[in-house]
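**User:**
Make up any protein.

**Assistant:**
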Amino acid sequence: MGIFSFFSKEKKETLDKGLSKTKESVFGKIARAIAGKSKVDDEVLDNLEEVLITSDVGVETTLNIIKRIEKRVAADKYVNTEELNRILKEEIEALLTENNTTGADDFELPEGKKPYVIMVVGVNGVGKTTTIGKLAYQFKKKGKSVYLGAADTFRAAAVEQLMIWGERVGVPVIKQKMGSDPASVAYDTLSSAVANDADVVIIDTAGRLHNKVNLMNELTKIKNVMRKVVPDAPHEVLLVLDGSTGQNAFEQAKQFSKATEVTAMAITKLDGTAKGGVVIGISDQFKIPVKYIGLGEGIEDLQVFNKTEFVNSLFGAN
């Protein structure tokens, strides 16, 4: 069992509920794809390929999965359709294991980095500020002191929302007036955090993609200014993506990966959508760890991504 033994019953229930629409959609399509077939042949594989692509797993990842299944079918000579779900589960889990290096099962911070600085990026509307608030809550629950930096200075709503989360969680939020230099806000936040011996700093940034050059320059400037206070900051660049947007999330991951060095991802809004397959594709295509998944509006509904439990929930395993 290892670290997975710490995955609580409550977390599992939240995950199962959050992925229920994806599970129903994917397995409904698979059932139709193999109806009337007794063994896995080329037609079944073609149908399965279509199911995975239309479930937002992505073309390249789908082809990768199909290739793996073809190898299994060739090796085993005869694979009946009843075994297909098991093989599919095993191959998807293997894929996630290869491409996702996060192994923690709880909200943990690395030793020796204090304050641990997280710069959060993502377009407006993906749940970026909400994710920051939920992260702050989880870290505070573990006894860590947290500072938030409102460096999305171009949207009053973003600053206000972060202030609300700060009050709700009980952590300080550093802000400046609207239109201020985002790098200046980041500098002030880190300076205050260092002065007060904080454990973790989370910096919100502007969610704009209309001009990648400006975005890249802005994020680079924020990084450079932060390093005047904490030389190796940021320790993590967390990209927040809205899982319910399917292929749009792939495009955003591509653009932000070009604009800055993304080191981890949070995929939100997986509850209420049938597009949960996007987690598999994004993990595979970008080779960037999916660190967190969002499964609801509640303050507790952000989970550390546990690939084993994710696949188990998707496939109905216990």
Observations:
- Strands lie at 116-121, 146-150, 173-174, 200-204, 236-242, 264-268, 290-294, 302-304.
- The first helix runs from residue 9 to 18.
- The first strand starts at residue 116 and ends at 121.
